[in-house]
Amino acid sequence: MGGLRQALTLILRHDPALWEIVRLTFEVSGVALFFSSLIGIPLGAFLGMRRFRARRLVISALYTGMGFPPVVIGLLVYMLLSRSGPLGQIEGDLIPRLFTPAAMMVAQTIISFPLVAGFTMAAVMGVEPHLRQQIRALGATPMQTAWAVLMEARVGVVVSVIAGFGSIISEVGAVMLVGGNIVGRTRVLTTAIVLETRKGNFELASALGIILLGLSFIVNVTMMLMQGKSFDQ
Questions:
Q1: Quick check: 74 and 174 in contact, CB under 8 A?
Q2: Directed axis angle between helix 202-226 and helix 154-169, to 10°?
Q3: Can you give the residue ranges of every domain in the chain?
Q4: Distance CA 2, CA 117 (A)
Q5: What is the rounded average pLDDT of the residues 205-221?
Q6: Which of 44, 51, 150, 217 is the least crowded, having the fewest Cβ atoms under 10 Å away?
Q7: What percent of the chain has pLDDT over 70?
Q8: Distance between alpha carbon 219 and the CA centroid of its chain, in Å?
Q9: Residue 34 contacts by C-beta under 8 Å, 6 or more apart in sequence?
């Protein structure tokens, strides 16, 4: 009970080390979510509205990505960005380097974009097909039709983004591999909890755990509310 009290004290007194970890967590996950949405929403909308020969293959690959172990994705990103990897040998500031926030953002983007794309596709496919025909009959361009369908499926699209955020905010294996858990540089909520627990610093680990649980709770409640579910059902 005393440890929990001390953890709450760390949160309430705005401990600099704790809130620096929280800030970096939101920075890394926020940028990753932006890019995964930038890729995933258009891809999901395209798969939901168009029919083409390799569509089932692409959807199968997407579903595989949704269930891919994050630590394996971290390993793949590590191999790509390492000095002996194909991207690690390229000079330039635009190439992410290992043990930097940029490398963590790459890993988290790869983890979350299949979820964003998959849920967006499901939301678009749930839109009444006659709506598209009516929009086209009014002379709308393909881009205008896609936008109208996305607006109709906007709740599902927002849920897909929230699900993508939930998948990366609580992820530990991939960011530990490519970020290295460096103090002040690449330490986020999940990796800090692991390290502080190993060090026996249970007060800080508990404080970080409380914040992470709070974020996960907010994500799940938001998803339920967006889907129109009440708490008494």
A1: yes
A2: 170
A3: 2-226
A4: 44
A5: 87
A6: 51
A7: 94
A8: 12
A9: none
At 114 the pLDDT is: 93
For 113-140, what is each residue's pLDDT tens digit?
Answer: 999 999 999 999 888 878 777 887 777 7
Instruction: Estimate to the nearest angstrom the gap between the alpha carbon of 79 and the chain centroid.
Output: 21
Enter the tokens of residue 66: 């949704």
Burial zone of 228 (CB within 10 Å; 0-12 exposed, 13-18 middle, 19+ buried): exposed
* DSSP label of 232: T
Q: Which two tokens stand for residue 126?
A: 């749930």
Q: How far is CA 110 from the centre of its chain?
A: 8
How far apart are alpha carbons 66 and 119 in whole angstroms? 10
The CA distance from 175 to 188, in Å, is 8
Which pair of tokens denotes residue 58? Answer: 């692409």
Q: Which amino acid is at 67?
A: G
Q: Average model confidence (pLDDT) for the chain?
A: 85
CA distance 155 to 43: 17
- For residue 2, pLDDT beyond 70: no
pLDDT of residue 52: 85
Domain 2-226 is of which CATH architecture? Orthogonal Bundle (1.10)
Cα dihedral across residues 156, 158, 161, 163: positive or negative: negative
